[in-house]
Design brief:
Chain lengths: 350, 304
Amino acid sequence: MRGAILFALVVLAGACAPFYLPPYELSLLGRFVALAILAMGVSFVWGTGGILTLGQGVFFGLGGYAIAMHLKLAGADAGSLPDFMQWSGLTTLPWWWAPFHNGAFAVVAALALPGLAAALLAFLVFRRRISGPYFAIITQALVLATTTLIISQQPYTGGFNGLTNFTDAFGFPLSDPNTQLALYWISLAVLVLAFLAMRLVKASQFGKLLLAIRDGENRVRFLGYDPLPFKVAAFAIAGALAGIAGALVTLDLGVISPAMFGVVPSIEMVIWVAVGGRDALIGAVVGTLLVNFGKDWISSAFPDLWLYAVGALFVVVVTVMPQGIVGALRGRHLRWPRPAAAQPVAVEGP
Amino acid sequence: MTESTLVAGQVFNGISVASILLLAALGLALSFGLMRVINMAHGEMLMMGGYISYLATSLFGKEPGFFVGLLAAFIGTALFGALLEVTLIRRLYGRPLDTLLATWGVSLILQQAARSIFGPIGVEVTAPSWLAGSLAVGGTALTGFAIPAVRVFIIVLAALVLGGVAYVLTRTPIGLYVRAVHQNRAMAEALGTNTRLVDLAVFSLGTGIAGLAGAALALIAPVTPTVGQSYIVYAFLVVIVGGLGSLTGTLFAALLVGLFSALAQIFTSVSTSDVLLLVAVIAFIQFRPRGIVARSSRALEAEV
């Protein structure tokens, strides 16, 4: 009961933020709220499922591009191509752009494309019981390959600059403060809904099995379950959440470009969750807000310091407080680890 | 240039890339195979080696500085690796994913430190004059292709390092300990092997080799704060394809990855070949999930 009241108060404080926050901080908050949706996905697969992903940027980007393609097409005059295609000398629209004329298709695609892509990757890799560091490295290679591909296909993707210069979204002018305000409330609503939904998922049998797979995949096998579909489903959910976040951030900033979801941004997404506490969904939200506001403050006050700070953050959080802020508040795991016992914990096969 | 010389040239390029990947991946494969530790700062060891080589050539001049640089790069990065192992990695054994994140933090700090010290723009290391030339193969410059001496040097260096590591592992008492820990850590420990020391030695040898690779790499490309980043992902792919901690596997995987990229570039662009490489690796692990050389074990959750 106390938890529910606290939750309601926090949501209320968030919903009223436009009335007491200065505009700049509000625009930051809106973006970070959207990013927190992605972070909950990371927390779900990593904290609950034990699957570390360094590649959420790919799914974030897919969601962002799906929306951005629709906005580009909607912004172009009837019968003409989006501006960057004309500059690159294209005369006809690539076939895979055509369905994005339809706004509803784009919205569904922003959710479904990343989800399906994540499911396919997870299926191909986990099918052969490859997990742990191997999977993390493969996801990182995927980010690298995706961003390189997008940058090299300038005529079709906008290349390094990405897709930008949108005029309006679904009939609402993007520069209008009211549109931005509505976008903030939409982001917050999606975050709250996703949070409640993920709580249900975590409490369900699926969530419990995922936790069991994290702690002893082979034992789960011996109990008669095949871990594969659970891991694939979990990763697909995280991918879809990242896609939603990508779509919202694209609308918010009015741009999506490979630099927003490359190798480094993708791994930063993990540190948000690590700082907040990987075990709890709320940790992902808290961590995302803290790290991103911290990043904004440090990189405007001391531009050179940000990489040092985030580097140190990785080291300190992982060694001293592996359960993050939420774990520390619960009074556990705040210590400088001693050298581990000589016999390492048995690690699942590759 | 005829078709056959084009292919031959790309094959040579592939072997040249493979030799660098081999040097970069050896340390990763060794420490990953032995300790299950993913060192994301491994690429920065390359970068560090490159900068050490740069400092050495600017201090001691082109000719002696080059050899001083190679030696100093090896020793310097090996010492740094030892420091990293003792202060950080040792504390995270058995938590491979956490090691990965912590060492990524170290790598960000090292990159920014390099940027603060040497600036964001790359520094050049000039090769000694006897490495400056190139060998023409297959007739004149128009019909054949040129093999730069530096690249031959790097291939030879990689072969020497591989031979040296293989010799140490199979013919020396130290190698015996390493193999013992690799095969069965608990049993080696029970029989009195100081596994901590073995881990430390292997990890610092691995980072030392990466430093050497960086010093060699500095001869063909400018050293930038992010030079390690551009090689590390491929080095990891080599480790995945090669199998855990196997020298033979790493060698063949480096050749496969290097040749695949180089030959793919005959037909397509560099960026598309990157994507194809990743697809190929994912396809490859469908057939051999444990890499080219898989250690067979009856243990269900094999430690190594």
